[in-house]
Amino acid sequence: MKSDPRFASQEARSKNYDFAYAFVAEQMKKRTTAEWLEALEAADIPVQRMNTLADIVADPHLAATGFFRTVEHPTEGKVRSMAVPSEWSESAPEYRRHAPRLGEHTREVLQEAGYSSDRIERLIASGAALVPPSGDIS
């Protein structure tokens, strides 16, 4: 690619992105991930393995640090979630609520925004604001 006129200048490269990506994709198929990592690291090129979701969930370091935790959701059952990805010396963040269902905190949020109870109920009745169906666990 070094001597290819399609890549001789920034302007030329910008007109040939599709070719460049297709070329690189074909080249990447010629070696294993481990081989590419070794070659790029040897060339002092920053590189990192591309993980799948399954790779991340099975990662030994993340398991050792307690990055994933399983919590009980009132309607969805056991849900795996991520811990807060930082450490705090004081007032450490903690899991206080489950992931909200669609519309679960509508009333609370609108009240904090200054809407009156009557206005909130009108918004809900008109369909402009959503709350979970009656009988759902709050």
Key traits:
single chain, 138 residues, 3 domains, two-stranded antiparallel sheet, 7 helices, 2 strands
Explain how this protein is built.
Helices cover 40% and strands 9% of the residues. It has three domains: 5-42, no CATH class; 53-82, no CATH class; 100-133, no CATH class. It has 138 residues and is mainly α. The protein starts with 9 loop residues before the first helix and ends in a 12-residue tail after the last helix. Strands 1-2 form a two-stranded antiparallel ribbon. It has seven helices and two strands, in the order αααααββαα. A hairpin with a 3-residue loop joins β1 (68-73) and β2.
Q: How do you describe this structure in short?
A:
Helices cover 40% and strands 9% of the residues.
Task: Please specify the SSE layout and strand pairing.
Elements lengths: L9 H6 L1 H12 L4 H10 L10 H5 L2 H5 L3 E6 L3 E6 L23 H7 L4 H10 L12
Antiparallel strand pairs: 1-2
Helix content: 25-40%
Strand order within the widest beta sheet: 1-2
The Rg value, from CA coordinates, equals 25 Å
Number of helices: 7
How many structural domains can be distinguished in the coordinates? 3
